[in-house]
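Per your request, structure below.
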């Protein structure tokens, strides 16, 4: 559900493993997929795919729409038997929105890298890990089923009990990398290489760490931001890609979520708030 860069990559890997996959897309991407899907990068292949502009009945539905489209996607999924609904999205709060409309919802986090080079052409930019779990921390048959499908498709995946922590951790890392790269129009590695940008990234990460500590989660946010930025040094962040295409970003669900959660705890997050407003400012010019 949302066959953009990541959705098309995951869907294609599942399809070539022998599963029947429905690609739900819209606009120019939908038109392009009707002619076929090309994947380049870590794997090179072209396949014919079944694509449509609305969801259909399924055993598993992977949701890969932008966070701001989650509610509209959830409403459409409620009209069909979507099976086990698994979010593989950026940002915080997607699972809660999906749960308002769908019966069985799992949380998910993936670090696989996918870029949309052109409509119908996805670049497989990086192999990462995918974590799936119940939001209440339990281990369910549904989560194990989803992970089995991913593993059978050559995707590194595992069931975890701490999916909420992983969702927030990814949001904090994204908050420190994505807006900076988007505003300054640089690739991820520059966040670490450029001392001025690194000062901003460290401040963002530290604010995120403080908020997560209040939630009961401890992790070295600054070290994780450095590790991810170095590991994905040549990648363009999704937020940079969005701004380059003149599209809305997910900043409200990343930096915005940290600012909002900070307010709940009485923690001021001025650097996150500044980046949030800067990206809002760029978006308002579209």
């Amino acid at each position: 559900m949302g066959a953009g860069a990541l959705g098309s990559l995951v869907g294609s890997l599942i399809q070539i493993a022998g599963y029947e996959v429905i690609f739900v897309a819209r606009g120019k991407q939908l038109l392009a997929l009707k002619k076929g899907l090309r994947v380049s990068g870590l794997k090179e292949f072209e396949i014919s795919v079944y694509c449509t502009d609305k969801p259909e009945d399924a055993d598993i539905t992977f949701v890969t729409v932008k966070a701001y489209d989650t509610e509209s996607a959830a409403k459409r999924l409620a009209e069909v038997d979507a099976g086990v609904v698994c979010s593989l999205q950026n940002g915080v709060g997607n699972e809660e929105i999906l749960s308002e409309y769908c019966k069985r919802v799992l949380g998910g986090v993936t670090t696989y890298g996918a870029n949309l080079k052109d409509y119908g052409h996805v670049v497989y930019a990086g192999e990462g890990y995918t974590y799936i779990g119940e939001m209440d921390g339990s281990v369910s048959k549904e989560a194990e089923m989803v992970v089995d499908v991913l593993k059978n498709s050559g995707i590194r995946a595992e069931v975890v009990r701490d999916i909420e922590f992983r969702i927030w951790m990814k949001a904090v890392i994204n908050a420190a990398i994505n807006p900076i790269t988007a505003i300054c129009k640089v690739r991820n590695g520059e966040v670490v290489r450029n001392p001025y940008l690194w000062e901003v990234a460290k401040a963002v990460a530290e604010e995120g760490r403080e908020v997560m500590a209040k939630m009961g989660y401890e992790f070295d946010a600054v070290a994780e931001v450095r590790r991810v930025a170095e590991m994905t040094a040549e990648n363009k962040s999704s937020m940079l890609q969005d701004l380059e295409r003149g599209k809305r970003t997910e900043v409200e669900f990343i930096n915005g979520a940290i600012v909002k959660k900070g307010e709940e705890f009485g923690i001021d997050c001025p650097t996150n708030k500044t980046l949030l407003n800067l990206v809002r400012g760029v978006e308002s010019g579209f």
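The chain is about 45% helix and 15% strand.

Regards,
D.
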